[in-house]
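Appendix B. Chain record.
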Amino acid sequence: MMVIILIAIVQMGVIVTSHLHAETLQQSVFSYAIVVLAGYMLVKFLWRVIQQLHLSRKWFNHFQNHMHVKLTKQLQYKYRNWDTEIIVVQDDAFVALTIGLLRPKIVISTMVLSCFSEKEIKAILLHERYHCLKQDGRKHFFSILLADAFGYLPIVKPIIRYYETWKELFADRYAIQQMGTELYLGNVLLKLAKHKSFTPCGTAVYFANSTLQYRLMQVLEPERTVVVPLTLLKPFLRTCSMLLLILIGGDS
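Structure tokens predicted for this chain:
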């Protein structure tokens, strides 16, 4: 995907540069079209950066203002060897996520602490700790930027969805390995299957997300390999066709 995107960017730059002094109307129109497309990509990219940073700051302040100080200190002490900040927020909804681009933190709600057992809570926290260790919040942010800036290339979104799914599966595997059993994480996922709604808050990585069906398959049938479909042939051909049109247009 990165190779295709880089080829598209380089080709646009070459076309625009070679046509800066073009004399024919057709070449000038094509050059301006490429410039407009590149400008659109840049503006959308910058707008998404600003939007996501604003949302992250907004929700981080919200979590800080609704922090349950006593429970936060208890969890911080209990998992002090993790070297990962844990924030407990006063909320009646299911909140379990990783937030922060530079220093990721785990956010969990009082509802989770009250409705799940101690082992189930640990499984949730282990899942989120994996995201913190792997800096998945930063990677998720970058994937959002790619999807926005290059969403017109058909191959981009299927690959990002595939990556997001496996990111969650790996986090679940980490939690299962640390717990030594699929039981507690499986209980959490089965309960979440009935309540899948959550509020998006910026660049956070959520415990509850759209990959739930594959995560349940991995937990309920651990002896079987989870197959996540990735159909790239048609998107790849459509992407190549678009790049070919750009090449042809640039040489005409």
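Further analysis of this model is presented in Appendix C.
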